[in-house]
Amino acid sequence: MKDVARLANVSVSTVSRVINSSIPVDEATRLRVEKAIQQVNFKPNLIARSLRMKSTNLIGVVVPELQHETFTSFIKFAEESAEARGYNLVIGSTNTNPETEERFIENLIRRNIDGIIFSRVSDHSRVLKLIDRTKIPIVIIDRSLAREDIPAVVLDNYGAGAMAAGHLLSLGHLSFACITGPLDISINRERLAGFRDTIMTGGGRLDERYIFEGNFKYDSGGRGADFLLDTGADFTAVWAQNDYMAIGAMNRLAARGFSIPGDISIMGLDNIEHSWMIMPALTTMAQPFRQMCESAVDLIVKASRKETTDASRIVLGPELVIRETTAPAGAGSRKLVGH
Amino acid sequence: MKDVARLANVSVSTVSRVINSSIPVDEATRLRVEKAIQQVNFKPNLIARSLRMKSTNLIGVVVPELQHETFTSFIKFAEESAEARGYNLVIGSTNTNPETEERFIENLIRRNIDGIIFSRVSDHSRVLKLIDRTKIPIVIIDRSLAREDIPAVVLDNYGAGAMAAGHLLSLGHLSFACITGPLDISINRERLAGFRDTIMTGGGRLDERYIFEGNFKYDSGGRGADFLLDTGADFTAVWAQNDYMAIGAMNRLAARGFSIPGDISIMGLDNIEHSWMIMPALTTMAQPFRQMCESAVDLIVKASRKETTDASRIVLGPELVIRETTAPAGAGSRKLVGH
DNA sequence: AATTTCCGTGAAATCGATTGCACAATCGAT
DNA sequence: ATCGATTGTGCAATCGATTTCACGGAAATT
């Protein structure tokens, strides 16, 4: 900057003012400075600026892992939104390990990061205290926390369950099964409640024995299918609370001789890439990940500019994606197995 | 830091020396300082340090997109390695858009980033000049460039092609087809060369008409299968140069009545998650992504510490993953269609 | 003509660390 | 007792920006 100043025959203060247009500068000198900036191809050093301004234009994104498409989607869309607003992303995956979480957050704080988008915080970790102390804007995404004072962007989980039930009921299904995610996580209980309630009021039945608790991974879908089948196979529709488990269940059902969707209809949730790469293509519900991330980034940008301070909670609805794994009840040749 | 200094009754210089153990400090005062640091829970501000040291402990990772699993793997493994060395990751996806690429790199440079891991640079972009000018360590990953003076970590692409051919030859296949990636990218030509050469020396044949140029996406696998089938279906084994295309081709082949692997064996490359979630599970080759990223991070860390200055090129081999889509030739009931 | 207002500019402080240099204290050797 | 070497510490400069404050001169007001 000194070079530019010398070249334009002004002080560094003036150069700074031209760059940031913070305070009006005489037209003539402004042009002179701009020309000098061009000449030496000067780009302000962001570190020095950050030190002075206490703002880095960096957003941290913390996810439990980078394997599941859910989380890579978060990163993808967050990156998109951040880039559009002139922010860069610092990412970290924590394996839900409180220690890693803490170390990472600590680092971000020391880097004076502008905000953090956090997915699947371990509730019991001391991380939240860490954040409270430093007053860094934080947005929880995908999973709400017990604490209502922290901004969050989440799916309407109850609505998702209701939507799954609604679609299947409309196809004439009456006997249901469900493969859930871990039920100690509240969003999964909400999803189940929406599913169950809608089935009830729609005149269908969801026997408690036909609820299998999985872990969101492919394998547990297969285990779920086995469990349900062995319990007594008198259901015609299965909803798995994410696509990985839905695909796992579907493959197992097919392997055990059931036709999809002839004998059994199956639905997932997430609309991951795999869901349309398999045969038959999976009927599922898309989570509005792009919008979620956009909102999250927005919240942080605004908060870091102190434009708002209210802890808002944004709830977004899923979108039904009908493909080939759901069909009218009784389309296949299978007889319901009694017990 | 001033608070700590006052509390411990020393100067800030001494506090700094305790923190960095750069210069010996008297045992007694060191303990006093450490206690003071504990008391005020002091953590050095990394921005100030970066400004002074001209080193940020940040590594940039630039990928063309965050959709394909290949690139999310890069990020995942790079994050792992970086975290282990005390670095954080700044990521950006460019859509291979030279403008976005430039903007992003520019940003990283202005942030005084320690190094950049770059995947699939657009060769014609002005980015490399940009980087040359600032002397930031850079490592190309996954795809080599014409310029030999830039460090790179790449797959042994010729070897991968050879490995695919070898496996299929060992199963007795003699008539081959190949679905390639874009052939203007050198790595794909190398893969094809390895495939072709090994088939030749192994006594098989790869008719030029049975080479279809895809674009690495799912759809082009299906198109490739159609093309090959319509050209004349006298091949018993297909290698697609990545898993997405392999799965696309496999689904189309199945849809057109061929049994996999009975009639036609099929192989991919990458070992993406989808590859074992489909039925039948895909035989493929795993790229050593973890090792690639580890090497890349290592190169950057070393370069940024000026421990080495030589532009090394690291070549790593793939690993064969045999699953269910390859079988001995002639296992199925299909008769080869002559023409 | 004197006073006030306004605008543009520069000098210097600031952000929070690291480090070169100078100096004081300790020690051992002559 | 004197000297040189060694060790530990503090002062002040530095990194590269932003911003407060003060000041000079032009314009506006009386």
Commentary on this structure:
The structure is a homodimer of 339-residue chains. Chain A is an alpha/beta fold and 339 residues long. Chain A has three domains: 2-44, lambda repressor-like DNA-binding domains (434 Repressor (Amino-terminal Domain), Orthogonal Bundle), CATH 1.10.260.40; 56-156 and 289-317, Rossmann fold (3-Layer(aba) Sandwich); 158-286, Rossmann fold. Helices cover 45% and strands 15% of the residues of chain A. The first copy, chain A, contains 13 helices and twelve strands. Chain A has helices at 2-8, 12-20, 27-40, 46-53, 69-84, 98-110, 127-134, 157-170, 186-201, 218-231, 243-255, 274-277, 289-304, and strands spanning 58-63, 88-93, 115-119, 138-141, 152-155, 176-180, 211-213, 237-240, 265-267, 284-286, 313-316, 319-321. A six-stranded parallel β-sheet of chain A has the order 2-1-3-4-5-11, sandwiched between helices. In chain A, strand 1, helix 5 and strand 2 form a beta-alpha-beta unit. The longest helix of chain A is centred in the first third of the chain and has 16 residues, at 69-84. The mean pLDDT of chain A is 91. At the A-B interface, helix 4, helix 5, strand 2, helix 6 and helix 11 of A face helix 4, helix 5, strand 2, helix 6 and helix 11 of B. Strand 2 of chain A pairs antiparallel with strand 2 (88-93) of chain B, so a sheet runs across the interface. Chain A binds a DNA duplex (30 and 30 nucleotides) through residues 1-2, 10-14, 16-17, 19-20, 22-26, 29, 44-54.
